[in-house]
């Protein structure tokens, strides 16, 4: 109901006593507020229709009337309906002038129309409108439920909501980041939010842009919010992965490292990626926790990352596995740094680890992704190193080489167990530094000297030789990699 609708109702015989512009008369009336206070503003809300007989407003000073109307305009109210009667046989001129000055429509209610009748009339119209809004809301919720039951994605359901309300809607996470949106803004760019029912650890909101400011969201979109919350909970917490089958097959083949280059090219093409241009990768490891909560949180953060990266990269593909999300990127915009995009999107209160690889060609991609995965253990955003020793070993798949390395180190497997092998590993890790090696192994320097001498005797080598040290280190890594 709008102010103009009241004036066209001949039954109430209302009269507009101010020179109010037409756009002011199109203001909505959200509720009816009878009051006789000199300052009723603490009890009013936006677009309230103020009803008064002026019983407590017995003054003639125009400054007092101006102060009264100024307070109403600050709320702002939709209009002031003044009932004539024993308190005021006619409208005070100071009130008329003040309403004209502050742009508040002043409606005169004749004395022969009972005040209670007018108030009931307004409430009946508002109640009918509320019922229509609630019915529309439940009908839209029923439609969304049917879409979801038919297997529609969250994006499709949100598109249906946007089409129904004829404006733009989006789902925001607890940090206000937009996860998914649908529709376009119609009219003014007003923003209203409605909290989606969810658990204490995951607070999402429905953002509505472009609806008139007087639209009540709860009756219209409250039932829909419950359906969207269930759909969102299913999407983020489902046992089935969110990635597409081609993307999963491609990324699994990359991690396996067993596919020939031609097979990887075919899988990349099926995923919609270009095999002949560089790839970047983002590997996200979630925090520890229960499987359900960890998966939900990982998916919410991963969703946030994908939305941001899709704005700056031509191609974004991803695959998830328990506790880990791998995202492949191509065709970045000029000057874009994926690390700087991702850094502010990680929650500060959860131990997420994110590793970003440098641009990589397809033949190098399997080694690069596994390298990023190995170095993705410390919370925060990190850049993957260009190469590490395990990466070199990873690129040497020869079974004969592994067998030769095992034979070289076999003499160390004596009745002392793994003592000599562990000593050699620590000694090489510390570049032959006796003090650091002894501290790591908790042994005296004389004990360490004896063990090193014993190792040199068994292997027939001189560990003072740098080439021999490199050979032993590579052999240790080869045998460790194959034993895992």
How would you characterize the overall build of this protein?
The protein has four domains: 111 residues, Udp-n-acetylmuramoylalanyl-d-glutamate--2,6- Diaminopimelate Ligase, Chain: A, domain 1; 106 residues, 2-Layer Sandwich (Beta-Lactamase); 142 residues, 2-Layer Sandwich (Alpha-Beta Plaits); 85 residues, Arc Repressor Mutant, subunit A (Orthogonal Bundle), CATH 1.10.10. Helix 3 runs parallel beside helix 4. It is built from 18 helices and 14 strands. The strands form three sheets. A five-stranded mixed sheet has the order 1-5-4-3-2. Strands 11-12-10-13-14 form a five-stranded mixed sheet, with helices on both faces. The chain is an alpha/beta fold. The protein is elongated, with a radius of gyration of 36 Å. It starts with a helix and ends with a helix.
The CATH architecture category of the largest domain equals 2-Layer Sandwich
Strand content: 5-15%
Distance between the termini: 73 Å
User: Unreliable runs, pLDDT <50, ≥5 residues?
Assistant: none
Please name the fourth-level CATH homologous superfamily of the largest domain.
Answer: Ribosomal protein S10
User: C-alpha Rg, in Å?
Assistant: 36 Å
**What is the CATH class name of the largest domain?**
Alpha Beta
User: Helical region count?
Assistant: 18
Question: What is the averaged pLDDT score?
Answer: 82
